[in-house]
Amino acid sequence: MPHAIDLTKPTHTRSFRRNLLTWYREHQRSLPWRKTRDPYRIWVSEIMLQQTRVAAVLEHYKRFLKKFPTVRHLAFATEAEVLAAWSGLGYYRRARMLHRAAKLVATERSGRVPQTAAELRILPGIGRYTANAIASIAFGEPVAVVDGNVERVLERLLQKKLSGEIVWRTAQALLDLTSPGDFNQAMMELGATICIPGVPLCYDCPIKKQCASRGMERKEPPIPGKRMRRSSSLLLVRRRDAILLQQRAHNERFMPGMWELPEAASEIAREPLLRVKHSITTSDWSVSVFSGPVPRLALKTHLVPLAGVSQLPITGLTRKILRKLNLLS
Ligand code: SF4
Fold first, then answer.
1. For 274, phi and psi rounded to 5 degrees?
2. 173 to each of 116, 195, 245, how far by Cα in Å?
3. CATH value of 228-324 in 3.40.50.2000, 3.90.79.10, 3.40.190.10, 3.90.190.10
4. Over 90: is that where the pLDDT of 272 sits?
5. Catalytic option among 46, 141, 151, 189
6. DSSP class of residue 212?
7. 134/196 Cα distance (integer angstroms)
8. For 293-321, how does the pLDDT look when each residue is reduced to its tens digit (9 = 90+)?
9. How far away, in angstroms, is 113 Cα from ligand 1 center?
10. Judging by beta carbons within 10 Å of its beta carbon (0-12, 13-18, 19+), is residue 224 exposed, middle or buried?
């Protein structure tokens, strides 16, 4: 039985925060709302991300902020303009509430977004999670967030069901008070990319040493020390300043919805552009990357401008390859 974290021991909670934050700062997906402290922009991203996947939000977020770059622009737009800019994201009630809240901020607070979670919660469409997310990320207020991802991570970490107020108190007890915004985002990122629903990727988890459930949800536990060697061939298709990427299906067990290079036909005989080693869970992959023409069965592929690649959720292997080829910074 692994040694689970004991929340009453400061040495345990300190090391948990350190490991999680170090991992997050190194591995976080590069997303546009993570590059700003502007509370309005963070607020818009949080509302868009409710019930919508990151990949679907990316384009809408940029378009929406281009049209309404400040809370005043949004407040003074017509409802039809706001709904048109929201088009494609669904759940239009979110857009109406955001618009109503922006009007209140513009008229009653001179366009200044409230700086505390308590004040934010008074605005239409902002609940406890959203208020705490905006206050911690934009203003550094030490308030924890709980969403489905965080709840799953906490329940697995402590290997017990946490419900209602207890899950919020547990999240608050773990929160890093000096970097609450990064910590909250790190917990959500861990739940979205490593401690995923179904079978978690415990092997890659930065907090596995303190987790009571580590590896316990694997259907077939790996034999210690026995790792599988595998190989694959990928294709790098470049058209001027764009490359061909494909999106993994949303019902994939691993990395659903993430973007990656398409597979190359197995009969390619020439020398690869690049060879990389990549370890995932229990497998060590040897990956060859070939340059080549667009594959014939490229139904789910898209030419993505290089400048926009870092804003897509790409797999770790794809990021590694593109960096090695100097196509991504
Ligand atoms: S070790 Fe596994 S179960 Fe525990 S938090 Fe990490 S991914 Fe989740």
1. -160, 145
2. 19, 20, 41
3. 3.90.79.10
4. no
5. 46
6. T
7. 24
8. 766 545 567 888 888 887 777 777 888 89
9. 36
10. exposed
The distance in angstroms from the start CA to the end CA of the chain is: 42
State which CATH number among 1.10.760.10, 3.30.70.1110, 3.40.50.261, 1.10.340.30 fits the domain covering 10-193.
1.10.340.30
Band of the pLDDT at 216, cuts 50, 70, 90? low
Scored b (16 or more CB within 10 A) or e, 121-154 reads eebebbeebbbbbbbbbbbebbbbbbbebbbbbb
Establish whether 155 is a catalytic residue.
no
| C-alpha 210 – ligand 1 centre gap (Å) | 9
Residue that is written with structure tokens 């929406």 in the block: 64
Q: In residues, how long is the chain? A: 329
In the chain, domain spans: 10-193, 228-324
Q: Which residue type occupies 247?
A: Q
Cα separation, 44 vs 53, whole angstroms: 14
For residue 182 the two structure tokens come to 């990064």
